[in-house]
Amino acid sequence: MGANVAGGVSARLDWRTLSALAGLDERSLRASCTRRRFDRGDIIFHEGDPAGALHLLDKGRVAVRLTTPLGDVGTIDVLQEGDTFGEQALIDGVGERTATIAALEKVEVLALDVTSFEQLRAAHPVVDRFLLMVVSARLRATSHQLLDALYLPADVRVLRCVARLHVTFGAEPGASIPLTQTDIAAMAGVTRSTANRLLQNAQSDGLLHVSRAHIDVLDGDRLRRLAGLSARP
Asked: What predicted TM-score, i.e. pTM, was given to this entire model?
């Protein structure tokens, strides 16, 4: 789930893999969940909503958005099939959503609420290990992002952000990253003007083509090298 400052790429373990590693039958997990479908642009839940369920992303991609102290909304992450969100709902059962989750395309999630989780837990106690592994994976990804923010210069953070998104949205020719420069700035932890300048430089170097609402990667291999990501995921 991301890469460290040394340029290696950590193994991405999705919820299906974690379920198998925990010894939890995927069919039992799916049977305990409620499938929910969303269209592009739909909000799965808002920041501040009551915490309700763990969501297992089964199809599609979503944006994770936060409201800044100044009232602006920034995209801080993009999750794809196999990722999870809302896991804290099963840990404390109370509280509020800490971010807004928006569908970037047609999305299907499997929602596991507290009641269903407790029923699954009674039949399959290993679900506790599964939840612990989900939280551990989230913490590992957050630690990598924090290391990047603390130790990488702005230009490398922006390129690394685009390189990761290139993988998330498909690295085949013709695949675009449907995010704005403002989104990239928020995800890379830089100002919009800095992101704009660095993306324009990358475009001049033949790495990218930048449009108003999407970014096309023209040379993925060179982009990854410049971003310090020597290994493919």
From this structure: 0.87
